[in-house]
Predict the structure.
Amino acid sequence: MAIIVQKYGGSSVADLDMLKKVAEMVAAVKNKGYDVVAVVSAMGKTTNSLIELAKSISPNPDKREMDMLLSTGERTTMSLLCIALNDLGIKAISLTGSQAGIITNDRHNDARVIEVRPFRVQDEIAKGQVVVIGGFQGVSYKRDITTLGRGGSDTSAVALAAALNAERCEIYSDVDGVYTTDPNMIKGAKHLPELSYQQIQEMSEAGAKVLNAQAVQYAKEAKITLHARSAFNPGKETIIKEVSNKESSGVRAVVYETDIARVIINDPSKIEMAAQILEENQIPMKEFQYSALGKDAGYKSSFIISKSNVYNWEDVRDTLNNKLKDNIYLNESFSTLSIIGEGFSLSNTVLLETLKLLRDNNIEYYGVGTTSFRISILVERDLLDEAVKVCHDYWVK
C-alpha cells in the first residue's frame, strides 16, 4: 500500500480534545487503505514551558541536557495519540526519533539529519500498524539524544517520507498554508496556493514561521511534494514543489525576523576567534560579509546571529565581548525585513524600489543582503511593523 506521512504541529495537538480529533483524521486515512506514519510535535506550548523550567534553574543550561529535556515533549504526544488510535480500533505504535532510525550529527539544539534508517518503521507498517513518531528529535552517531531546532518536526516528517518513498508528505498546523506575510501582523495577508522549494526555503531562513528550512532541502533533493494545511479547517492549502521560473517570478512574500543580533568586527585577525567561539557553542553565522576597505582604510566584517534557538545567549555574548573587547560591536536592537521572490540577481529593480520605499517612509536601513530569491534589509526593531506593512502594501497586489 502507498504510504502517507503526516506531521501535526503543536497547535494541532494542543489539548486532549484536539488530539482525539487528530486521531480520527489519521484513522480516516488508514481506513481508506493507506499506510500512515504520523510525526507529532509537543502539545501546545510544552516546549516553551520546558525551556522556562530549565532557565528557572540556570540562565545558561547545558545543551545536551536541554535536548534530553525537550525530547520528552514529543514523547508525551506520540504516546497519547497511540492510546487514542487504539481506542478507535486502529493498531498503532509510538517510536522515538532514535527508534525510528533518525541519525544526526553530534550538535545539540540544532542537529542536522545525516541518515534515516527506517527499518523498525517498515517492520511496524508491515504488521498493519499506524506508526506515530516523535518529531524534532533523533540520535547522534555518539548515541546521544539530539533535537533538530525550531520546526524540527517538519524535518523529521520529510526525512522519513524520503526514506520510506512515501506518496506525499502533509504538514498540518493551525493555519491553512503559507501567506504573503504574517497574517497576525498584516490583516491583508494573502494565501499562497503554491510556492517553489527555493522560495519557501528562503522564507524559513529569513525568519518566517513556515516550514523548517532543512525540511524543505530534504523535500527538494528527494522531489517530495509538500502539502501545508490546517488541521481543522480543510479547504485551502499551500503546495510546495518544483515550479518553473516563469510561474514563480516577481515578489511573492514579505517576511521578518526579530530575535537577532548584529555583530561587527573591525580587526580581521579577530574573525576566526569570533567564529570559533560561536562554533564551540554551535551557533551559525548568517549574512557574513568581509570587506578590505583599502591599505589605510582598514577592514570590516559583519554577520547576523539568530537568537531564537540559542538557550545560552547571555553567556555567549559575554564571552564575545570579553575576548574581543574593543574589536567587536554587538547590536541587538535590529530586525530583518526580507522580500521573497524570484530572479532578484537579474535586475536591481526590486532592490532599488524597496530602498526608496523605506526612505520615503522615513525608515532608515543599516544593512542589505541579497540572493536570487531574497532581499534582506536591516531595520530598527521599533520600525519593523511599519516597514513590513509598507513593503507588503506596495509589492503584494
Summary: The radius of gyration is 22 Å.
